[in-house]
Amino acid sequence: MSAQRQDTGKRLAAPDIAARKGGVPIVCLTAYTAPMAELLDEHCDLMLVGDSVGMVVHGLPNTVGVTLEMMILHGQAVMRTARRAMVVVDMPFGSYEGAPEIAYANAARVMKETGCQAVKVESGPTVVETIDYLVKRGIPVMGHVGLRPQAVNVDGGFKAKGRGADERARILAEAKATAEAGAFAVVVEGVAEGLAREITEAISVPTIGIGASSGCDGQILVTDDMLGLFDWTPKFVRRYADLRGEITKAVAGYAEDVRQRRFPGPAEIYFAKAANAE
Question: What is the C-alpha separation between 144 and 147, in angstroms, rounded?
Answer without folding.
Answer: 8
